[in-house]
């Protein structure tokens, strides 16, 4: 390794090296709990005998009769066993993604990104990938519901009755001129807005109130002050060579993370031809996924965000010869350096801030104006429509509702009782409102308090459209017939506004005809094309004039300066990388996805810096509950999680937990922290001052995947360098392991050259994968995609604690430290703000696979295409293979996770009739007692080969795409045939056969200097290469 | 709310897959067809253009079998007219082309000949084969012409490829011969041993022996003494034990094997009539067989293509066909009993075998065209699969996918490439 002094460690326990950790570190699985210490009794033996005898008798009988039921009238486009793909649109409040839905026999089974979209460009996120399972959520509403009588269940209504009852109430309200409100998250759909307009036309007292869980109201207000219009511009990170983010988690949750991830990857990508990359500064309190990817990360407190930005403004203003403003703290580390870099890169620089404070955002606008970012990295003429929520309007609505001034309210697919800070007040006020309706597809906290439930379809069942960005349109089409008696919410609104034809499909279609259809060719062709593509992009007509910046930076700076400093702890409330804002919390795929940073699953926690947590016992995941008290709010009790990188004096709590009516999966996990949010300067503030943080004596164990499968300190796992070194054309990674041969101990050779194996020959294909550590941001979309594609079982909190999670693909998150391993003091200091490396780890498909040689029943074998095959029906569960796997990527089915009541809550996809519809019919559901692991999506390989064979042609390069690769927004994962010199992976790795005479042998040489293999020295010859991470840091620091 | 597909359907409402192998451009049609009578119309229309090339005829035969045969024969009238001489009696070759491509259009245009036909065949429309190219139709006509001109006696009823014999191993007659031989040897041994005993006895009688020894020599070999001897008991126990063990093992191997399974189906559908006597192509009904994993059991609409018209069967009369009509009218699917049940852990793809490898249906399903009630012909065990993968040559002809592989294979081996050589025995080819 190049900087061989550098030490990586996976968690606090490993760093502290406490005895408990050391004891278990070498074990793949935790010790079995007491409940499994099976002392079999004689009686058990007899029971088993009895069962055995009867089972044999049963098996000898005739197999059960199975039916084969064909269609009555087979639809033309559906062929059993052949997948269909539909372009559609994912919207969840203000979140957007253009998608392609894979369906089998009429059931959606996978979501992929739509590469045709100019907005998301084929990217997805963990939330989007997982939203598929929300379609099959068992807690969905099955039809409209009326009010519940005291202590009784809600009355089931027909849609006609609901329309009649609500219609009567609406006309009563209209008769007396009562006020009606439609409350919603950001509405991206122009047709939905049009439907609401129709409703407003019928009931003119109606007003629409939009709010967002993660509000960007501060940016809207700042832009109104700066440019005279409340809007959010388009940011283009791909054009920025210097990025400064002050607490903006733009790769995780800020504005449009999928879009930004795509753009960011472009600037972070390096190759021998392009030895350039952007430099990314991050100033933040919690360790966010964005901060984890930054080149320079500075720990600041939330109260210092303004000061850092004002300092940055002043430094740049003085360089530009413009007047400076008062205030600012240029002693904050890296501010001056960032200012120098920004100024040098003006025109290609971008500054963003996550704060929802108008004054801070005005300063950010000011800086971007000085740096000429407007017109280059920021496009003000291309406003986006995400996060249009109006905090002031929402606050006004709540107080009106409390004051009894509202007569009717319709909650359009939103849940403010849970996810708005005034939710509790609103919930109480709903009782006094004459008509309350919720259109959510689930009841949830808000729905539980309204009179009428008029459930909308899930987005995969519904027609819709979206306009994420000016002139960028997107169509959503149903990929399945509605499962339940639900009705499009827009249709509901149209019906209530007295439209004769309320069919929402026809409404969308006629809108598109009016808005976008230019008259040629015929409308049907236009519509078919839009539907096929899923998107429609209309060229922007107006000339790109950059408006002048007119923000009052002086006033903003003085507002910032007058912000009181915090006396106690400062609290950051943020969206975690798995459950996000909590709207999809009932999705077990997300609950079991390890948070990219904390690696916690199924748990809520408060993150605290190691410095502030000195008195907490560092035992593996074992912590204590702490109470977090915000002035004037109810105290919240959550377990503490020690998080390196967290600024001392600050704590962070993710939102999205503390659900009470989300469904079996999410209910009861953690606390709702939305009520802790405060309103500062008219907008919601996600950071709070003077927070009391007190230890309780209650113990808790957080389920974390973090310290599982440790590499025991081997240094050959992660390789990294700095851009400056990489820019030298003769750069080579300095770690090349060698081994001595018996003949001459002084003669060292590459480990692959010495082998007792004869080696394989891959005449047809040789599948391989390259993973670029430089562009992998650790988001976890691939993990969810892999779960969905391969029917991977979810096991729940307890089993994760027992280290029995089943994920085939995990993302190892390593912290680094510059200190030597024996320099304990040094390590401790670096641990305060570590560098982070994300490394996706999956079966390496070794050519000399250690697992294959130890299997007593040949259940894991090698294929002629380089795959390490796992045959479930052959496996007898000795687990020798897992024991012998150097990468610890094999997973054992400790239980029967399907058709087992015990796992019904955590794994509905294999235990409920509704959930089972999500399973991929081409992949076996594994049973108890067998081993499983990444198969390189062999079902996709086989299907790709078959397609080529059927068309009687050779396979095209890159015809097969694995699920993880398809989901990777940054393109960090490249899969392909390394026997084919034209494939993307061959070109990326610059791979060539070691012996040109025998090109089909396994031995291949890569000429990409960044390519290396994990644990190369053990000579297992994996088929996965990793590309060295490059940090754009000054060499001296590295 | 209608649901449009991403793939906007073609004009046809047929189960057509236009990208498929040309031979099977369309293996299904929606409406019954009819064609061209008017025998007295004698003027010829470019009939001499019809090719007599063997290539055109064989291409036409494949197309005819896959697309036309469900309703037409060359010499006999079926749902539609017999096609012999059609190129002479139809108004023109161009007329035939336009009629085949879009019969309803020709009828609607008011064409006399077409309307006459239409009325003559109970106003049943012929499916539009819009995906046919002109040359396809010419090839079919070439085949029809060749068949028309063929002498009656030369016509050979095509026999379906016989099924491959089950399992490997030695044939039973061979085994019987071996057993008989062994039995003969045993009898001979017994006779020899008898001679030996009497010779020894005679030898001992001539000697001076003690009383005890004499008793032993003279003790008679009785049935009781033999059965009580420990050697005999051991042999009997061993034999019984081995046979019992073998029977148990055999029994266990047959668990889950349903060879010969022939359940009663909700409709007494006979493959013997449809595939055997009517010679309807398998792919006409089993539309998925060239495309996907499952061959698919035909949906009711496919049955109705013909049974719209044919209301009475040759064996069962009207009762069974009425069930199809009832299913169609009540929109109630027919619940067939599944005969071939592979375990969920095994992935089998019909198109791989039928489309790519060109395996005949009968290879696995047996003489299906002779079965009134379908039964499971093959073992469908893994050993059975593997056996075939070991023996079968890969169908590489005309498939560019295999070009490189064949070249590499021929460099190292003399024998043709078997499925095994291509990795056909690997676990993850079927288990994932």
UniProtKB/TrEMBL annotation, chain A:
Residue intervals of the 4Fe-4S ferredoxin-type domain: 767-797, 834-865, 866-895
Q: Which InterPro entries match?
A: 4Fe4S_Fe-S-bd, Asp_de-COase-like_dom_sf, TAT_signal, TAT_var_transloc_signal_dom
Classification via Pfam families:
Fer4_7 (PF12838)
Q: Which domain of life is it from?
A: Bacteria
Q: Which Gene3D superfamilies match?
A: 2.40.40.20, 3.30.200.210, 3.30.70.20, 3.40.50.740, Formate dehydrogenase/DMSO reductase (3.30.2070.10)
What PANTHER family does the entry give? GLUTAMATE SYNTHASE [NADPH] SMALL CHAIN (PTHR42783), GLUTAMATE SYNTHASE [NADPH] SMALL CHAIN-RELATED (PTHR42783:SF3)
| Protein name per the record | TAT-variant-translocated molybdopterin oxidoreductase
């Amino acid at each position: 390794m190049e900087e061989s002094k550098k030490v990586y460690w996976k968690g606090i326990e490993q760093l502290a090296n406490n005895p408990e950790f050391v004891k278990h570190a070498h074990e793949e699985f935790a010790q079995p709990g007491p409940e499994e210490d099976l002392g079999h009794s004689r009686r058990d033996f007899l029971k088993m005998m009895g069962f055995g005898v009867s089972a044999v008798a049963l098996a000898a009988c005739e197999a059960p009769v199975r039916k084969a039921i064909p269609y009555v009238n087979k639809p033309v486009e559906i062929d059993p066993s052949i997948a269909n793909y539909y372009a559609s649109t994912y919207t969840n409040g203000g979140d957007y993604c253009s998608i392609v839905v894979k369906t089998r026999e009429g059931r959606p089974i996978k979501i992929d990104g739509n590469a045709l979209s100019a907005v998301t460009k084929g990217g997805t996120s963990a939330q989007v990938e997982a939203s598929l399972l929300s379609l099959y959520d068992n807690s969905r509403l099955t039809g409209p519901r009326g009010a519940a009588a005291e202590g009784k269940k809600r009355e089931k209504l027909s849609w006609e009755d609901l329309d009649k009852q609500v219609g009567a109430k609406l006309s009563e309200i209209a008769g007396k001129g009562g006020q009606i409100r439609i409350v919603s998250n950001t509405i991206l759909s122009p047709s939905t807005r049009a439907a609401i307009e129709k409703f407003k036309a019928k009931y003119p007292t109606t007003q629409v109130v939009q709010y967002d869980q993660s509000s960007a109201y501060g940016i809207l207000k700042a832009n109104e002050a700066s440019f005279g219009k409340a809007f959010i511009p388009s940011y283009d990170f791909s054009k920025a060579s210097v990025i400064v983010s002050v607490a903006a988690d733009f790769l995780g949750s800020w504005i449009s993370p999928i879009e930004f991830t795509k753009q960011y990857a472009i600037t972070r990508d390096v190759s021998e031809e392009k030895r350039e990359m952007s430099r990314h500064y991050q100033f933040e309190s919690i360790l966010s996924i964005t901060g984890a990817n930054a080149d320079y990360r500075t720990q600041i407190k939330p109260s210092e965000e303004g000061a850092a930005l004002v300092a940055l403004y002043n430094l740049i203003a003085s360089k530009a010869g413009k007047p400076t403003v008062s205030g600012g703290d240029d002693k904050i580390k890296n501010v001056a350096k960032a200012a120098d870099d920004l100024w040098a890169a003006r025109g290609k620089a971008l500054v963003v801030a996550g704060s929802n404070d108008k004054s801070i955002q005005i300063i950010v606008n000011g800086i971007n104006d000085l740096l000429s970012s407007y017109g280059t990295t920021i496009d003000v003429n291309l406003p986006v429509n995400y996060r249009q929520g109006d905090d002031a309007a929402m606050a006004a609505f709540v107080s009106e509702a409390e004051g009894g001034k509202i007569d009717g309210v319709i909650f359009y697919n939103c849940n403010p009782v849970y996810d708005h800070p005034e939710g509790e007040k609103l919930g109480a006020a709903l009782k006094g409102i004459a008509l309350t309706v919720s259109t959510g597809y689930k009841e949830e906290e808000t729905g539980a308090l309204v009179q009428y439930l008029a459930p909308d379809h899930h987005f995969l069942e519904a027609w819709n459209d979206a306009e994420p960005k000016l002139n960028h349109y997107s169509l959503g089409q149903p990929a399945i017939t509605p499962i339940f008696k639900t009705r499009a919410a827009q249709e509901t609104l149209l019906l209530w506004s007295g439209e004769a034809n309320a069919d929402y499909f026809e409404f969308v279609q006629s809108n598109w005809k009016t808005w976008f259809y230019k008259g040629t060719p015929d409308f049907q062709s236009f519509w078919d094309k839009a539907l096929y593509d899923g998107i429609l992009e209309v060229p922007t007509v107006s000339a790109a004039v950059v408006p002048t910046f007119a923000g009052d930076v002086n006033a903003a700076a003085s507002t910032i300066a007058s912000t009181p400093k915090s006396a106690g702890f400062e609290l950051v409330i943020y969206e975690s990388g798995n459950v996000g804002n909590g709207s999809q919390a009932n999705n077990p795929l997300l609950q079991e996805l390890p948070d990219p940073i904390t690696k916690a699953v199924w748990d809520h926690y408060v993150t605290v810096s190691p410095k502030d947590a000195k008195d907490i016992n560092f035992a593996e995941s074992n912590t204590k509950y702490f109470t977090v008290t915000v002035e004037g709010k109810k105290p919240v009790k959550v377990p503490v999680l020690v998080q390196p990188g967290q600024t001392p004096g600050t704590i962070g709590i993710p939102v999205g937990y503390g659900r009470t009516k989300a469904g079996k999966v999410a209910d009861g996990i953690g606390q709702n922290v939305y009520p802790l949010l405060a309103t500062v300067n008219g907008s919601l503030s996600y950071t709070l001052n003077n927070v009391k943080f007190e230890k309780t004596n209650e113990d808790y164990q957080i389920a974390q995947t973090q310290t599982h499968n440790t590499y025991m300190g081997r240094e050959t796992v992660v390789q990294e360098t700095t851009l400056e070194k990489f820019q030298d054309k003769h750069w080579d990674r300095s770690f090349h392991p060698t081994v001595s041969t018996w003949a001459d101990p002084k003669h060292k050779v590459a480990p692959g050259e010495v082998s007792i194996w004869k080696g394989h020959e891959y005449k047809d294909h040789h599948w391989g994968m390259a993973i670029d550590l430089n562009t992998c941001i650790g988001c976890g979309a691939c993990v969810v995609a892999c779960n969905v594609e391969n029917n991977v079982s979810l096991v729940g909190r307890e089993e994760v604690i027992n280290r029995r999670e089943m994920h085939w693909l995990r993302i190892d998150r390593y912290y680094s430290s510059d200190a030597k391993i024996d320099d304990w003091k040094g390590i401790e200091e670096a641990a305060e703000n570590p560098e982070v490396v994300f490394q996706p780890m999956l079966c390496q498909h070794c050519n000399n696979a250690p697992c294959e040689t130890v299997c007593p029943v040949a259940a894991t074998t090698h294929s002629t295409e380089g795959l390490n095959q796992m045959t479930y029906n052959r496996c007898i569960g000795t687990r020798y293979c897992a024991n012998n796997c150097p990468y610890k990527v094999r997973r054992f089915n400790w239980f029967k996770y399907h058709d087992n009541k015990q796992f019904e809550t955590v794994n509905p996809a294999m235990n409920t009739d509704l959930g089972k519809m999500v399973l991929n019919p081409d992949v076996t559901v594994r049973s108890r007692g067998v081993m499983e692991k990444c198969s390189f999506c062999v079902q996709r390989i086989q299907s790709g080969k078959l397609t080529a064979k059927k068309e009687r042609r050779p396979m095209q390069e890159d015809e097969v795409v694995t699920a993880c690769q398809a989901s990777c927004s940054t393109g960090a994962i490249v899969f392909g045939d390394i026997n084919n010199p034209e494939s993307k992976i061959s070109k990326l790795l610059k791979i060539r056969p070691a012996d040109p005479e025998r090109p089909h042998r396994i031995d291949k040489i890569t000429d990409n200097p960044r390519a290396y293999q994990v644990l190369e020295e053990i000579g297992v010859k994996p088929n996965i290469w990793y590309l060295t991470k490059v940090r754009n840091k000054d060499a001296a620091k590295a | 709310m209608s649901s449009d597909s991403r793939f906007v359907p073609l004009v046809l409402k047929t189960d057509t897959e236009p990208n498929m192998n040309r031979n099977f451009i369309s293996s299904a049609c929606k409406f019954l067809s009819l064609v061209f009578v008017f025998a007295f119309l004698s003027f010829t229309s470019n009939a001499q253009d019809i090719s007599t090339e063997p290539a055109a005829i064989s291409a036409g035969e494949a197309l005819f079998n896959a697309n036309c045969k469900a309703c037409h024969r060359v010499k006999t009238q079926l749902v539609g007219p017999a096609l012999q001489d059609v190129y002479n009696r139809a108004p023109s070759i161009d007329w035939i082309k336009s009629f085949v491509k879009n019969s309803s259009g020709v009828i609607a245009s008011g064409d006399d000949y077409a309307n006459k036909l239409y009325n003559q065949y109970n106003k049943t429309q012929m499916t539009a084969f819009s995906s046919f190219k002109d040359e396809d139709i010419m090839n079919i006509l070439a085949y029809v012409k060749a068949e028309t001109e063929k002498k009656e006696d030369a016509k050979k009823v095509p026999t379906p490829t016989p099924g491959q014999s089950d399992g490997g191993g030695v044939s039973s007659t061979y085994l019987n011969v071996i057993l008989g031989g062994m039995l003969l040897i045993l009898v001979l041994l017994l006779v020899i041993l008898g001679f030996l005993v009497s010779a020894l006895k005679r030898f001992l009688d001539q000697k001076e022996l003690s009383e005890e020894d004499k008793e032993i020599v003279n003790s008679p070999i009785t049935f009781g003494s033999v059965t009580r001897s420990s050697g005999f008991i051991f042999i009997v126990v061993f034999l019984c034990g081995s046979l019992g063990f073998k029977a148990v093992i055999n029994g266990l191997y047959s668990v889950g094997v349903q060879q010969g399974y022939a359940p009663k189906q909700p409709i007494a559908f006979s493959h013997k009539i449809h595939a055997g006597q009517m010679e309807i192509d398998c792919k006409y009904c089993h539309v998925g067989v060239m495309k996907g994993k499952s061959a698919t059991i035909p949906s009711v609409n496919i049955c109705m293509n013909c049974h719209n018209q044919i209301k009475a069967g040759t064996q069962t009369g009207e009762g069974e066909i009425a069930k199809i009509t009832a299913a169609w009218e009540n929109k109630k699917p027919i619940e067939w009993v599944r005969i071939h049940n592979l375990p969920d852990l095994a992935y089998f793809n019909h198109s791989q075998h039928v489309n790519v490898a060109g395996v005949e249906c009968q290879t696995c399903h047996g003489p299906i065209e002779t079965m009134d009630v379908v039964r499971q012909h093959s073992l469908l065990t893994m050993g059975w699969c593997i056996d075939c993968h070991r023996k079968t040559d890969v169908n590489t002809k005309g498939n560019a996918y295999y070009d490189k592989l064949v070249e590499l294979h021929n460099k190292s081996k003399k024998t043709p490439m078997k499925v095994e050589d291509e990795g056909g025995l690997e676990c993850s080819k079927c288990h994932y």
